[in-house]
Design a protein that fits this description.
It is built from 12 helices and 33 strands. Helices cover 20% and strands 26% of the residues. The structure holds 2-acetamido-2-deoxy-beta-D-glucopyranose (NAG) (11 copies). This is Peptidase A1 domain-containing protein.
Length: 605
């Protein structure tokens, strides 16, 4: 036992001894939990990881921020803390391995939430205090406790009492950490308590240099808890079965959103005042329509942070009510349209323009947008629609976990590219792991992928048309779709029900025939016109993004370096400013070599 501890401590003392890049390494699978989830704004699947030695299990959510965060056990035991239950799997910083390898001496001074990046801390409304530190993190490759990858002497932040707060005063103390997927900056430097400077490597660059993965990249689908879609994450690769469409590519980290719309895959529409079931052109900012919007995408924050007028435009068609205490929209669960919308193939459609100017839509079924506020934020579970209005001069728009339940996200730090594609619902192909090469600027989708609709067809049934008019009894679970790939979910229909369906079908057929007649006549007239106008709108977008210097580029969302802070009207970061340290931590696009020891040393004082 003593010898074991000795060998385990050794690498903590000699952090860089075995570093070696291996571009032929297989992608490293990171397993998510698939039976228990976390809140209090989810539910979300999380990654179980080990820190310190002997292993201490911790829970983490993946993030694009540079720092991984571990929660100090004291965060949930101190007075006034309000950790979401169960507050377990927290780090106790007392192990012999940690103390005997100078861990405590390397702990930095107290830093505010900005240690995690200004954008993240602002979006989350992060308050409280943490410290930079270094320790071992152990990855169980693919969740297999016999395949260990040690990330020794890793730079991380320990949260002593970081908390997330809401405008109405509710807040919770973080009891889930974050696993950094950022490969843009190699290391962090900070000032320790005794005044010296400590420097250590970030998670992804360290794993790469240790030869655990073939490139500084990852591919991820965070999946969803309700309905149950298991999450997938590979470092240095991706599972192609999670990629149903040609990925949209971003140069850097900013995607171009060109349209927001609603639609229904099959069956009747339960959208409020939207009998047709579809609408587009909901993308607006500051009260007026915009042709495009710059958005970042990341799994470290929960909501879809969009301009208020865009959230409002979507909400208009939903049985939701804006709640200023949470700055979110709460579902009106008494309205039967709520259940109809979240249990049938109603979806939010976000269209993006890739750097090669092709357009790709990512569809998010409303089944994934029925999320829940839970203790300690509310006393009773409260379903909410995860659109968080960002003010027009505030932080840029950001699509967080709510959106990523339906999207595949990948990033290659070595080519500074990011990829976004349609992810499947509960039914998807066999896993098919592919490597992301260090020079990759494109990713191949699954071969012969199923249609997005078909991956949901066994879970979400189209509404029969009677159930969508508000006079009925809302029994509308009979599918009106006959498409392929549709599994019959009912264990057994009674003879009466079958007879009912047959009669219903005959009547429906007659109605459909009439409708088609009417529709064909009507459509003949309008088709040509609408086709043309749609093409023209997209052409405008192409034009704007084809020429970066063009004066038509959207003015209000152009990234202004350092601009977020200067113009920041949003929530509380006041206290955080004063403790600002390690400036290179703030901006993932910044060149890592700019983080000189003296610079951060000076700033932290
Ligand atoms: C870690 O960071 C140092 C610089 O602080 C660098 O020299 C080293 O190569 C990095 N990589 C590893 C695996 O330690
Ligand atoms: C769910 O988790 C268990 C235990 O970690 C694992 O063995 C299993 O493969 C996972 N299921 C899926 C579908 O990934
Ligand atoms: C989710 O699905 C996975 C695999 O399909 C299964 O192992 C797991 O138990 C399910 N989790 C829940 C909470 O049903
Ligand atoms: C964790 O919390 C304890 C108790 O508040 C504190 O003494 C300690 O410094 C913290 N640990 C680290 C590594 O910051
Ligand atoms: C501070 O602590 C570090 C790490 O233990 C040590 O190397 C250094 O000598 C100390 N500096 C001072 C000024 O005590
Ligand atoms: C967090 O802890 C710091 C001291 O470590 C304390 O000054 C601060 O008031 C605490 N903040 C909250 C929100 O509890
Ligand atoms: C990406 O952006 C960088 C710097 O902004 C630029 O030099 C490069 O040419 C761009 N690449 C593509 C493919 O647009
Ligand atoms: C809405 O969905 C239907 C069914 O998938 C499709 O035929 C139609 O083109 C879609 N309409 C729009 C505006 O996207
Ligand atoms: C909404 O989601 C919760 C879990 O977050 C689930 O328990 C509930 O059944 C869902 N509501 C509907 C109508 O599907
Ligand atoms: C929003 O509208 C107001 C008043 O119309 C204007 O003063 C402000 O500059 C606009 N903001 C943006 C970001 O366009
Ligand atoms: C609606 O359901 C109730 C009982 O659940 C029943 O008494 C009533 O007759 C139904 N109404 C219609 C229009 O089907």
């Amino acid at each position: 036992m003593a010898a074991n501890i000795f060998f385990a401590v050794l690498p903590l003392l000699l952090p860089y001894a075995c570093a070696q890049i291996d571009q032929n390494a297989a992608p490293c699978p990171i397993a998510f939990e698939n039976t228990s989830s976390i809140g209090p704004d989810g539910p979300w699947w999380y990654i179980p990881l080990q820190v310190d030695f002997p292993d201490q299990r911790v829970k983490m959510l993946p993030t694009q921020s540079t720092m991984s965060i571990v929660i100090n056990a004291s965060a949930c035991s101190t007075q006034g803390s309000s950790c979401p239950p169960p507050a377990e799997d927290l780090w106790m910083p007392f192990s012999e391995a940690w103390t005997s390898s100078n861990g405590p001496d390397q702990v930095g001074m107290e830093v505010g939430g900005v240690a995690w990046g200004i954008v993240m801390s602002t979006l989350l409304g992060l308050e409280g205090s943490g410290q930079y530190f270094t320790d071992r993190m152990t990855i169980w490759r693919g969740g297999d406790s016999s395949q260990l990858n040690y990330l020794d002497h890793q730079a991380m932040v320990v949260s002593n009492n970081y908390s997330v707060s809401y405008p109405g005063g509710a807040s919770y103390t973080l009891d889930t950490g974050f696993f950094s997927l950022n490969g843009a900056s190699n290391h962090a430097s900070w000032t320790t308590a005794n005044g010296s400077t400590a420097t250590s490597n970030h998670t992804l660059p360290l794993a790469y240099e240790n030869g655990f993965m073939p490139s500084k990249s990852y591919g991820m689908h965070i999946g969803s808890v309700h309905p149950n879609v298991t999450a997938s994450l590979y470092l240095g690769g991706y599972d192609a079965s999670r990629v149903l469409s040609q990925p949209v590519v971003a140069n850097g980290t900013v995607f171009t959103l060109v349209d927001v719309g609603l639609n229904v895959t099959s069956g009747a529409s339960a959208f409020t005042n939207l009998g047709s079931g579809h609408v587009r052109g909901l993308l607006s900012s500051n009260g007026s329509n915009v042709a495009s919007l710059d958005v970042e995408v990341g799994s470290g924050v929960p909501y879809m942070y969009l301009p208020r007028s865009t959230c409002d435009a979507i909400a208009e068609y939903l049985p939701v009510q804006y709640d200023s205490d949470f700055d979110l929209y709460l579902w009106n669960t008494d309205d039967e349209a709520f259940e109809h919308i979240v249990t049938s193939p109603h979806y939010l459609k976000l269209t993006f323009a890739s750097i090669d100017q092709t357009l790709q839509a990512i569809n998010v079924p409303f089944a994934l947008l029925n999320l829940t506020l839970d203790t300690p934020l509310v006393s009773m579970q409260t379903p909410y629609f995860p659109c968080r209005p960002v003010d027009d001069l505030g932080p840029s728009a950001h699509l967080g976990r709510a959106f990523l339940q339906a999207a595949f996200l990948a990033q290659n730090a070595q080519t500074n590219t990011m990829f976004l594609a349609q992810a499947p619902g509960p039914e998807f192909l066999e896993e098919n792991v592919k490597t992301i090469d260090s020079d990759a600027t494109t990713l191949a989708p699954a071969t012969n992928p199923p249609s997005w609709e078909s991956t949901w067809s066994a879970t979400l049934r189209g509404l029969s048309s009677s159930s969508s008019d508000n006079s009925g009894n809302g029994s509308g679970s009979i599918s009106s779709q006959g498409g392929s790939g549709h599994k019959s979910g009912g264990g057994g229909l009674s003879g009466g029900a079958i007879a009912g369906i047959v009669v219903g079908a005959v009547v429906a057929l007659a109605l459909v025939a009439l409708l088609i007649l009417w529709f064909v006549r009507r459509r003949k007239k309008s088709w040509a016109a609408s086709q043309q106008s749609e093409q023209e709108e997209y052409k405008n977008v192409y034009a704007q993004y084809g020429s970066p210097g063009a004066t038509t580029a959207p003015p209000q969302y152009a990234p202004i370096p350092g601009g977020e802070l200067a113009t920041e009207p949003v929530r509380q970061i006041h206290e955080a400013d004063a403790t600002l340290s390690a400036p290179a931590e703030m901006d993932v696009r910044q060149d890592p070599t700019e983080l000189s020891a003296e610079e951060s040393h000076g700033q932290a004082k």
